[in-house]
Amino acid sequence: MSNERLHRTLEASPLFHGLPPAERALLLGIAREKWFSKNNVLFTEGETANGFYLVVSGRVKVFKLSPDGKEQILHIFGPGEPVGEVAVFSGKDYPASASTLKESSLLYLPRAGFLSLAHRQPQVLLNMLATLSMRLRKFTLQIERLSLREVGSRLAQALLEMRADTGTDGRRSVVLGVTKGQLANQIGTTPETLSRTLQKMTRQGLIQVEGKRLALLDCRRLEDLASGIVRP
Question: What is the CATH number of domain 149-227?
Answer without folding.
Answer: 1.10.10.10
